[in-house]
Amino acid sequence: MDDKLMLMIPGPTPVPEQVLRALAKHPIGHRSGDFAKIMAEVTEGLKWLHQTQNDVLILASSGTGAMEAGIINFLSPGDRVLVGCNGKFSERWAQVCDVYGLATERITAEWGKPLDPEQFRAALEADTDKQIKAVIVTHSETSTGVLNDLETINRYVKAHGQALIMVDAVTSLGATSVPIDAWGLDVVASGSQKGFMLPPGLGFVAVSSKAWQAYTTAKLPRFYLDLGKYRKEAAKNSHPFTPPVNMFFAMQVALKMMQTEGLENIFARHQRHMNATRAAVKALNLPLFAADHASSPAITAVAPVSVDAEQIRSILRKRFDIAMAGGQDQLKGKIFRIGHLGFVSDRDILTAISALEAALQELNYEGASVGAGVAAAAKVLAS
Predict the structure, then answer these.
(1) Is 35 exposed, middle or buried (0-12, 13-18, 19+ CB in 10 A)?
(2) Mean pLDDT in order along the chain per 10 residues (383 residues)
(3) N or C: which end of the chain has fewer CB within 10 A?
């Protein structure tokens, strides 16, 4: 049947009908007074979602563009940076730093394991000359389903006193609490196609006053991604370049939906869906890739042993029109990933788990009794 695709991947994520309808409106001029009113409204909504009074700047980019902007606007060639690497996307930020000639030091953990905050503490405390200019952390590592301990790492950065804390919050913003002002986070990047319930196309960068001070002396090249330009125009409820106007219509609607639900309810829903998904996977005797204490509310990675991950994904897509994500790089063919962030409901979780059970039956999997996964998920969702 056409038009029944169900996205259970970590991005793009499902988009509500009313958001899709907003996308279909006729564009308006991006230098008009009407657009300025929308710009003002969505900027306030973004500050609410980011839990900050700092600037939240809007780029026409993916999350990668937002993260690159967050790095290059506040650093100079040769600056020493610490980058936590425990998955594909955290390693990408180290590669970006390498490209721009930064003195990149990687603090690593095995894929599927969380970063060790004590390694950051040791490196920061040893930096008595205050040469470390930034610490870059991926909060929710999309490739593995691991949630890193940003709060503790940030506390060690704050004790250092000089370094900026830069955060990839692409799959954590809108799925779990990222209290920017309360924690004093300096640069936080995210993208529209995750917890924002929007299609791909917009990147967001929240910037602290401390980071803006670093901006004044930063010497890395920048033009389109020069955040100073975005800040200047945002103060006038405008944009330095031609923005995707219809995405702003959509963002206006999505933010209103999120404000109606409320931050705490949004975070509780994502936690409930993570718990239900993990309970179902355990009941099916399928190994989880990330430990319970370091699991992301946005995505659950599963590492099956006696059945093939790609065969599971293929059956889900062909038989049930449900898309789940595969593994990346060295994890390709070894894991599959269930996205449960953004516009996802309890019904979606139960549907995905029941289809997963049907796929396992088709593959003659004998590791669990029929219905065990759905029963486990239903129990969590009903509690």
Answers:
(1) buried
(2) 89 98 98 98 98 98 98 98 98 98 98 98 98 98 98 98 98 98 98 98 98 98 98 98 98 98 98 98 98 98 97 98 97 98 98 98 95 98 95
(3) N
C-alpha 137/C-alpha 188 separation (Å) is 10
Stated length of the chain: 383
Confidence at residue 3, expressed as pLDDT on a 0 to 100 scale: 80
Q: Indicate yes or no: pTM above 0.90.
A: yes
- CA-nearest of 33, 35, 55 to 44 is 55
| Residue 84 bridge partners (DSSP) | 107
Select 6-12+263-382's CATH number: 3.90.1150.10, 3.40.50.150, 3.10.180.10, 3.40.50.720. Answer: 3.90.1150.10
The pLDDT, as a whole number, for residue 1 is: 66
Q: CA torsion 180→185→187→193, rounded to 10°?
A: -40
Beta strand pairing call for 322-326 and 336-339: antiparallel
187 contacts 227 by C-beta, under 8 angstroms:
no
Q: Which amino acid is at 103?
A: A
Distances (CA, A) of 363 to 308, 313, 356: 9, 12, 11
Strand partners of residue 134? 81, 164
Q: Where are the domains of the chain?
A: 6-12+263-382, 17-260
Residue 73 near residue 227, CB atoms below 8 Å: yes
Spatial distance between the Cα atoms of 250 and 247, rounded to a whole number of angstroms: 5
Tell me, which fold does domain 17-260 have in CATH?
A: Aspartate Aminotransferase; domain 2 (3.40.640)
SS3 (DSSP) at 291: coil
Taking the C-alpha atoms of residue 383 and residue 241, their distance in angstroms, rounded to an integer, is 48
How far is it, in rounded angstroms, from Cα 163 to Cα 282? 41
Of residues 348, 374, 352, the one with CA closest to residue 284: 374
The single-letter DSSP state of residue 26 is P
| 347 annotated among ligand-binding-site residues | no
Q: Cα 26 to the chain's mean position, in Å?
A: 30
pLDDT at 2 (0 to 100):
79
Paired tokens of 344: 């996802």
